[in-house]
Design a protein that fits this description.
This protein has 252 residues and is an all-alpha fold. The protein contains eight helices and no strands. Helices cover 81% and strands 0% of the residues.
């Protein structure tokens, strides 16, 4: 999409976005399991033995990193939705007495940040699915290498449980990602509308659409919270006992 107009980042929005980024950093540091597991050997507990064990270790580690990246993307998306709706709310407030050009610049800046985040989420989602396809294909191949039927069965059960958790990530993040694109498109329409015709009558005319957009934003933020929870659950279930104990010690 082309730019709507000159992009300014007045101090008010800049401070708001800086605050949101600070809170995001704090929230991510509060989830040490997600931060630590990308480089830990605990992810290897998912694997079945096979001729390509070392290569498979790398694939599983890569998938873990991709899911962690999705977790971060969803948190950023949630905060970008809040920032953009806040900017819109300022413009359509009946008590608004500020500078329309500055307020619209705030809205444009927030919108474009949100659109870039949607693109990042889509890109990381594609990388995650590609990585997962390799992991599960190799795991299924490794099942053929067992000499013990019982060990093959145990590994197959673990594979299906892991796949089910991964599928939960897909079925929560995928729809939220589509709704996020739709939200950004609707927000862009509102931004274009207000940039062309901003006065009391023009705002009153689209009050219904604005209320709908705010409700959609609230629901979508809740969806992204759920997405982060499913990513966190995937990582926790894939962590070894030793890694879990190490994480608990760090939290204490």
């Amino acid at each position: 999409m082309g730019p709507i107009g000159p992009v300014n980042l007045p101090s008010t929005l800049e401070r708001a976005l800086s605050t949101r980024r600070f809170h995001l950093s704090a929230s991510l540091l509060a989830v040490p399991v997600l931060v630590a597991c990308a480089s830990c050997a605990g992810v290897k507990s998912l694997l079945s033995p096979g001729n390509d064990g070392e290569a498979t270790f790398v694939q599983v580690d890569d998938l873990m990193s991709r899911i962690e990246r999705i977790h971060v993307d969803c948190e950023l998306a949630r905060q970008n939705i809040a920032a953009s709706t806040d900017a819109l709310r300022v413009m359509v407030d009946p008590e608004f007495r500020g500078d329309p050009q500055l307020a619209h610049g705030d809205l444009v800046s927030a919108l474009e940040l949100s659109e870039r985040q949607a693109e990042d989420l889509q890109s990381d989602y594609n990388r995650m699915t590609s990585s997962a396809n390799k992991v599960f294909a190799q795991w299924e191949e490794n099942l053929k290498s067992f000499s013990s039927d019982s060990m093959r069965e145990h590994s197959a059960v673990r594979m299906e449980a892991t796949r089910a958790r991964y599928d939960t990530v897909l079925t929560t993040v995928g729809p939220a990602m589509e709704l996020y694109r739709g939200f950004n498109a609707s927000l862009r329409d509102h931004t274009l509308y207000l940039g062309t015709d901003f006065n009391e009558e023009s705002v009153v005319l689209v009050e219904r659409e604005i209320r709908v957009l705010f409700r959609e934003a609230e629901a979508l933020r809740a969806d992204f919270i759920h997405c982060t929870e499913t990513c966190r659950n995937y990582v926790r279930k894939a962590t070894t006992r030793s890694q879990s104990a190490s994480t608990e010690r760090r939290e204490v």
